[in-house]
Amino acid sequence: MLGRPLLELLTVPGRIYYETHLAPLLRMHGFFSEVALDLLEGDGEPLHTIANGKETRDSEGRPTSIRIAFVKSIDRRRYEQELLRSREMARAAAEATEEKLQREHQMAELREQFIAVLGHDLRNPLAALSAGARILDRTVQSEKERQIVAMMQTTVMRMAGLIDDVLDLARGRLGGGIAVEHKAGKPLEAVLTQVVVELRLASPGREIVVDLHVDRPVDCDSSRIGQMLSNLLGNALTHGSASKPVMVRAETRDEALELSVSNAGERIPPEAMDKLFEPFFRGKARASRQGLGLGLYIASQIAKAHGGELVATSTPEETRFTFTMPVQAESRDQTDGPVDST
Amino acid sequence: MPGVLERNNVKVRGAGEQSMMFAHGYGCDQNMWRFVAPAFEPDFNTVLFDHVGAGGSDLSAYNKRKYSNLSACADDVVEIGRGLELHDAVFVGHSVSAMVGVLALQKGPGMFGKLILVGASARYIDDEGYVGGFSAKQIEELLEFLEANHMGWSAQMAPLIMGNPDRPELAEELTNSFCRTDPDIAKAFARVTFTSDNRKDLAGVTVPTLILQCSEDIIASEAVG
After folding, report:
1. What CA–CA distance (Å, rounded) separates A162 from A118?
2. Who among B35, B142, B161 is closest to A12 (CB)?
């Protein structure tokens, strides 16, 4: 080995690496440390080593010698290669997952666009039906006919409600968020009272205890808050104990509006609590009472769009949904704009 | 998007009528010229730069697909030349940049009047009737081997450019700029370099060309010169 040029001791890749990386480093930098280099063994096989090199220089800065220490590192190299392989595998797996996710995401978006278009197009024939029923209502003679027309009108309204929910879902999901308009419309308390009246009519025999103290203006979209109460109250009537009253409370206190709906009855299983506000989540109820499972989702989106929050608590004694929001837009963290639900 | 001069970390020095552009080869950056370029500064306007992906270039401008051949590097050279309004300049290209210069000559007519090719090779891999110096297998082994030295890159720097404990200010400078290469880019650039074949482009060289060869250049042997 003595007397042979260094490069002859290296494998071909080692030589190239030495020339392109290590030689310049020695010249510019004066040393290199812990570099993987392969020496050629007698049989032509590579011998993995770790090398440190240093160039000594005279007082003029001219190189006088180069010393390189090689340390055999077969196991270390093997270990490093395993690490590299696993890193490569992890990277490939992450890429595959990412790609799959992208595809799923695109699919989901397409489905939501479909829902939006479908929901929108269903409204027109429904409006025609509704108009037809109204005309019939004016001319019907017999009590039986009147009942049938009334049933048709109720059904049309129910369908319109379902379509509105689907459209709200699609809007929330397509990034626009649920639209809220902060305008000085009907006073909030009056809107809430109206919602309770409607639901009382729809659920005769059920007791709804109302306690409203909205004694200052609230900067909100009152019809949306009414929609939220309607969803929460409808939910409480469907799932709560039929023999106990449902409580509706609203009050303004310390710059905040708090609106809550509570009912007695079976507690919500803890494992279901996380999913309550997800779209299409449906609890146990008679099939005939089932909606699309969008009520709570939409309610939570309305809460978000107001810079507020909707939380649920459930104990064996009581299940309660509480919505809180700042009374004035200025004191909110979030802007009034649409909230992206994704 | 930053300008070409920022993208390629272009440094212009010297005082002369004629410009001389220095293009570094594979494995380093414009620091490679630090003992060479200053010698030309009294007589030439020297232009140094880093190829995209190397040294102080804008790494975000690197795109594996775009830089999958030397032509993209030559495009960059021409863009730099246009940015500096180079005309009849001297192009000095080391190693792989020699062929980059050959390509740039075609892409930017009039920009370069002379080529100086140091350690040039139009093809590194042996072919029928052609000695490039390496077998295809050896080049594959090289690409594999490069990974072995990229283990230490987890902290975004190679152990080989770690600081000199006695002179921290030097270490700072070196770790920040000297031969800094992202491991993935280094590997991709190695593939581009060592699998290139520019033999047919040589016919397009119509300007005076000086070919410098090292007597013991293991990468570009005398025969390929």
Report:
1. 12
2. B142
Segments forming the whole domain that contains residue B141: 4-224
For each of the domains in chain A, give its residue range(s) and CATH number, in order of start: 6-72 (3.30.450.20), 96-173 (1.10.287.130), 188-331 (3.30.565.10)
For the question of an ipTM over 0.85, the answer is no
Total domains, chain B: 1
- For residue range A26-80, list pLDDT tens digits in order: 877 788 888 888 898 888 888 999 888 898 888 887 888 899 999 998 898 888 8
Distance separating alpha carbons of residues A341 and A168, to the nearest angstrom: 11
Residue A34 in tokens? 């812990």
Contact present, B52 and B70 (Cβ < 8 Å): no
Please report residues of A whose CB lies closer than 8 A to that of B27: 19-21, 24
Select which of B19, B57, B71, B95 is catalytic.
B95
Segment (H or E) for A260? strand A256-263
Q: Which residues of B touch A5 (CB under 8 A)?
A: 216
- Contacts of residue B220, defined as CB under 8 A and 6 or more positions apart, other chains included, come to B95, B119, B120, B121, B124, B133, B213, B214
Residue A14, chain B, CB below 8 Å: the answer is yes
- Residue B118 in contact with partner chain A when CB distance is under 8 A: no
Asked if A53 has any chain B CB less than 8 Å from its own CB, the reply is: no
Query: Token pair of B95, please?
Result: 């190693």
pLDDT, tens digit, 9 for 90 and up, residues A168-180: 877 776 666 677 7
Query: Distance between CA atoms of A63 and A59, rounded to whole angstroms?
Result: 10
Name the residue with tokens 């030295």: B149
For residue A318, the Cα-to-chain-centroid distance in whole angstroms is 28
